[in-house]
Queue: 3 jobs
Job 1
Amino acid sequence: MQIINPHFSQPLFVGFVKLVSRIVFLFLLASILSAPALRAQSAQSDEASPWAVPVKMVSIIKEDDQGLPLKFPSFVFFDKTMDEIYVVSGGNGRINLYGADYFPRISIGAGRGVDAPNGIYVAADGRLYICQGPTAKNPPRLTVLNAAFFPLQEILLQKFPEADSFVPSRVSVGRNGAIYIAGINSRGVMVLDSEGNFSHWLKPQDKIWAEEEKDDYSKLPKESGDGADAPKENGEIAEEDQQETELANLPDFLRPKKKTKLADEESKLFGPVQVTDVVCGAEGYVYLLSEETSKVYVYNPAEELLFSFGKKGGSSGKMSRPRGLAVDEKKKCIYVVDYMRHTILVYNFAGRFLFEIGGKGSAPLWFNFPTALALNRQGNMVVADLFNQRVQVLDVRFEAGFSLFGPSNKSDEENKEENKPTGEGKE
């Protein structure tokens, strides 16, 4: 019988083990190196959007501090000092506060003297300036709270000149401490000093329509398309019908209206315009938004009108019912919320239209009558999505200086020259 030497097969066995080890090592190394590429492909697909720029959902806020659904969030404000978001709930007359993690922390209501909030501004020292509408117990007023949410001052605005029926809706505080208040039933913005005393009216002058439109509180328009609501089945009550019954809880200026019917030039008059929103920039510039003219009016720190921009209409790049304004001084852009077109329009600091995002729908990234927006510390858009009863936080990635955006090839100086002011409008 032949005896096999055991030492003869040992080198072959060792070589085989080394070969298998190398194959396993190379396989693991290839997996590790390919992981970033896979993650990049996944991120790219998440950022895909039907608009000119990638838009990514960051968060959706749907609940208040008590775990109940938000009721018609009509206004948002971001406090840069504390990294917090304030949301005005038009359905129950409260202000909800959210942290940097978008988790609800606290709400402010009647116990703090807040019963009909329309808009809010939080100063660097923590003071809250709250625009409030009329109630059965209180007239329209500007309520000032300290950083601990205790009342400091109630400013009754109807005692000031030309303010008999003035109802404050938006407020902003300038670099010099001046308080700018936009409201309904008035033209221009009311300007108070830092102590709350009346100073003057700031009234941009422009062509305005001779005939104002009547409110239409009928059913909300039903639209189809990407992101639109699916039809109800099995006799379920349509969402639009339910929303119609809830309109009674909203202030008049938040209710949908008929779209503008353009008239002849002869039907226009020249005079002070109605101002819907006001924002004071960190550098002292003042930005006024008019739903009436669908324009933004830009003033320097001395309240001298520099120029205006914007066009009324129902197509891309035009404003139908602009309701909210935000200024991005880092990207040098101005954002406008169009209530009726369910979109957000983006302009550069010269007033040149760049692009827009949105459309009517209930899916993420779509809107249903948005009313306001703010920018958080990361530059994300915080949008009050009124009839979807939520607040959306969106990461919109773009560079304002990129010439691809916008249909116009005019230079910024040409655009400013085209929209040069016709009067200062300060009274």
Job 2
Amino acid sequence: MPIFPETPTFSTASMFRRNRWLISLRWYAILGLLLGVLLLKIFEIGSVPSILWMTILAVVLFILNLFYFTFVSGKVRRGKISLVSLLNLQMAMDLLLLTILIYLTGCEESPLAFFYVFHIILTSIIFPGGFSYLYSLFVVALYSGLLVLEHGGIVTHICFFQDVHIANTPGLAISVWFIVVVTMIATAYLAQNVTMRHRRVREKLEIANQKLKEINKTKTTFFRYASHEMKAPVATIQSTLMVIEDILGQDVDDRVKDMLQRAIGRTAGMILLLKDLADLTYSNFQEAQKFENLDLTMLLQDLISDAQPNIERKNQKLDFVPPAYSCEFFADPIALNKIFINLLSNAIRYTQDDGKIEISLKQKGSTYVVSVKDNGPGIPESEQANIFQEFYRTPAARKLISEGTGLGLPIVMRMIELHKGTINVFSKEGQGSEFVVILPIGGSL
């Protein structure tokens, strides 16, 4: 894990605010340390040299914090790396000074070891990623090293409280009470701070999500309205062009004939695009869905019957053996029609003349499995992950058939998702394709 990760979660401005917040907290820590030193002197508790060094530590911490404050408050605009470096410097120095303070107050006898917890909480608030784990290891290393130095005889153990017993020393009891109070208040403050930050982020996300939903609904409404209103005039233009082509007949300049055919082709493509846009936006209006009980076998038979003229025109063979049992399914018939019309149309369109198409319907456990298989050109394995993306068409498909919007399979995917189902594709280039739709029985209830 990098020490200075380039994470989008925290911006430069966010790091700047975290530096200022940590510096502000440290002023309170310095004040608390000086107040603690004062109480120790008043109640005459603890080693005098240790208290002197504690005062020196408070001064050092004050000077360091003044430096931090000057660094972030200067006229020079600091970059993200500089701000993260400053945060790490602050935290490392704080832990080092706290370890010295723990040593001065008796090492393992010192109640100040609990203050390590504050810094771990702070790192989890301030730093991204797993920084809190890194600093936990750093704390363990500091405290363990201090114990090794003491018990190894490298540094002398300071018996801060000497032979004083807390039960018989009111001043010492008050000092310990003071530490407990500070611990509780600081812990409550940090926990509340984390909660408030989380709540603010969640509220912002909820507001942003609501705005996105409203924008998406407006966009979808516009697409539905536009596709519906534009389809009729474009169809009228196409019909007019076809009538003009029939009137002019064959006795017309080749350039005019070519222009008419191109215009008719373009209007046909526009009508197809408008139809697909209407289908695509239909799946966004779940409140408009009307689910009802239907017979999946009859639905497929009706679609095959409607497609029969196109199948015969290309001299293709279509095999469909309906199951002997009833296949009742609770679904939106409009959405279900769109699913299998698209799959069947693609099979007919991309399968060569005299080709073969197979459709099967089976019940497997608590699901219906519908397979649409052809022996067409197939889909390269490298392209199969992209075919359900909107407006995507494989190079082979574009070369084979120029007309198409690339919206058919995305529409199929959305309609299947409305019914809590899945779709899988099995294909090899030059060996045909098979699309398998799995619909959970009762999954749409």
Job 3
Amino acid sequence: MTLAPPPAPIPPATRIPTTPALADDLAAALRDDDAAALDRLADRHPADVRDRIRVLLQIYALHTEPLERVGSAARHQHRPVLAQLKQRCENAWLKELESLALPADVAHATTADETVAAMRSLAARDRLPEVYKWLARRASWDDVVRFLALEGGPDAGFDDLVAACQIGLTGAPKMELATNYWDEMGNGSPDDVHTTLHDRLVAAIGMPEVAVDEQPTTALARTAFCGLLATNRWLQPEMLGALGLIELQAGPRCRLVLQAFDRCGAPAAAYPFYEIHADVDPRHGKDWLDKAIVPTVTSHPEWGPRIVRGAVWRSAVNAAFLDEVTELLGAVSAPSRGTAAA
């Protein structure tokens, strides 16, 4: 499989105009299905990092959200002005992500074995962040619900991400992602589909839906990161690494959430979503490495460093989110992770 080159960068503007938030104007144009208003955004730049992420979230929604949610705006998915805004915002973000320093023990992974070792090393770092330990041991029930409302579960939209990631793969890697997807689909049982289990969790604990304007920027960036990978085919190796890291880290974190449920007396319907992930994700992580990454890197050694890079990016984006939420909830003092994750 031949890797497509990244898109050519858009030359930077000499200055950023002092205009209202680009995301707000984009939202209005999409809501009104106003093609002329969209075209007038061609030379606009986001006001700041948060504005940039909000712009990307709206564009990614046209590619990945249910049609009943995006409505007629979906027809603008590939409108040139939106492609231009998407590339402009993504180029800035990718420059920040690519500036992240790789840990010394993962920086030179090239072979399949080295790639797997690097992935395991990355997964072991911050496998159990302090905020999850706080949930398990000390958090009030209200704080548990607040955290879960922001976290959104270990694999929000993971089924669609796996489906996008398998495009173009063959053999064992494609089979492994198909197996993973089928697990997400409850192995054919509608009642056991993971999104259904999450819906029941939400209802059982009265989990609020946090409006975009009320979410920290790092939470929006973590969501947008999935859109970055899913809508850029040339980032397929990075996506394979990022999703693999999610699988490697989710199980232990879910077990700590279950401890919080036990301690706080959570309703029975809250348990299945986290129980299934605590049980199957360790196997998913191992199988992702052995059956998807090993054969892929064996056939395409050039993918190895990029798979690791995608895992590093996911680690940084997620760590920045957990650090900020830790501080917001007053769980523990969290160190700063810099700005590249947003």
